[in-house]
Amino acid sequence: MIIVIDCIGDPCPLPLIKAEKKLRKLKGDDQLCLEIDHNCALNSIPEWARKKGYQVKVEETPYLEWKIYIKKIEKKQLKEEVVFKKQKE
């Protein structure tokens, strides 16, 4: 389920505060969608969410507005595979 938060017109740091509160309550495959219209939130929220380990996707909409999708990542998805390539001899 996608939970939408309308942050149009909200100055920083209100969108980030709203996102943080809702993200604590997300379950399973739920996603958060923040609708924003401030450049500072466009930069700060995705950066913050990635540092916290969330998956982030940003979409630009008409009228200089954006949608930031934030989703929890399962621990098993966080594992990174390291592949060593053999050098040609």
TrEMBL record:
Where would I find the UPF0033 domain in this sequence? 4-72
Q: Which GO terms describe its molecular function?
A: transferase activity
Q: Give the matching InterPro entries.
A: TusA-like, TusA-like_sf
Task: Report if keyword Transferase is assigned.
Answer: yes
Which keywords does UniProt give here? Transferase
Q: Which family does it belong to?
A: Belongs to the sulfur carrier protein TusA family.
Q: What is this protein called?
A: TusA-related sulfurtransferase
Q: Which organism is it from?
A: Halanaerobium congolense
